[in-house]
Write a structure and sequence with these properties.
The protein has 10 helices and 2 strands, in the order H-H-E-E-H-H-H-H-H-H-H-H. By secondary structure, the chain is mainly α.
Length: 266
């Protein structure tokens, strides 16, 4: 009974704090609106989210850009995790060549700006290998985030106690079986929170692909602003849409982490 009452009081307190935060944000926004001479035109925003045509309702340019942003981020996230696992295992291997390649890759990518890498892939390698702009964007994002994921995964694997390796070898497992059944399941639980933060960074970093004319959410916002001069309304809407995507991703990762903890306790 004590636990139930404390949890209810904690939930009530969180709800009150949330309402107060919303009230403070609304007061700040409307106070700033009244203090400036900027002609706010929020009523024009819905048409850029959902629009009606002769064929019926369809997504507006902002929602189309958001769909492309999610698609780019999703594909890049899968590829970056794959690259990260591969680079981490290469770094931890006994092969001097593999470890050197992995180290050079992570150091070079992590110490150069993503925008420069994006320009290099699209403007230098693109004409040579006939790389489309969408493929160039995915490649740049995957390589950039994969370098950070590699270090996160490597540290997670290195943090596993040596007795786990010895126990696996004593059971007759080879290296691949040890990684698959013993090491990686434990490492995933450790690296999930930092990988979630990296995934959130990936979504935000995807806005840079607008620099090579990929019609993501940021570029769609820029186009609308150039046509309508709705600067603040569009950028606030774009920021809110990015916030929805990133918070949803964080919530899904938190739920996955809870489920993993429950499965391990069983």
């Amino acid at each position: 009974m004590i636990r139930k009452s404390s949890s209810r009081s904690g939930g009530l307190l969180d709800g009150m704090l949330f309402v107060l935060a919303l009230a403070a944000a609304a007061a700040f926004f409307f106070g700033g609106e009244n203090a400036t001479d900027y002609p706010w035109q929020w009523y024009r925003i819905p048409r850029y989210l959902v629009e009606r045509s002769v064929d019926g309702w369809r997504w507006g340019p902002l929602m189309q850009g958001m769909g492309l942003t999610i698609a780019l981020s999703g594909v890049s996230l899968v590829l970056s995790c794959t690259i990260g696992i591969t680079a981490a295992l290469m770094r931890l291997s006994h092969s001097i060549v593999a470890a050197a390649i992995s180290r050079c890759y992570t150091e070079f990518i992590r110490n150069t700006p993503l925008l420069v890498q994006l320009f290099f892939i699209y403007f230098v390698l693109g004409p040579i290998f006939d790389i489309p702009k969408t493929t160039a964007a995915i490649t740049a994002l995957s390589l950039f985030e994969g370098a950070y994921a590699a270090e996160i995964i490597r540290s997670g694997i290195a943090g596993i106690d040596k007795t786990q390796w010895e126990s696996a070898y004593s059971l007759g497992m080879n290296l691949s079986q040890t990684y698959r059944w013993i090491i990686l399941p434990q490492a995933v639980r450790r690296v999930l929170p930092p990988l979630t933060s990296q995934a959130v960074s990936l979504v935000k970093d995807s806005s840079l692909v607008s620099a090579i004319a990929v019609a993501d959410l940021t570029l769609q916002g820029q186009i609308i602003i150039a046509d309508t001069f709705l600067t603040f309304e569009i950028w606030f809407t774009v920021a809110a849409m990015y916030l929805i995507v990133t918070t949803s991703l964080s919530a899904a990762a938190s739920r996955l982490e809870v489920r993993m903890d429950r499965s391990l306790r069983r």
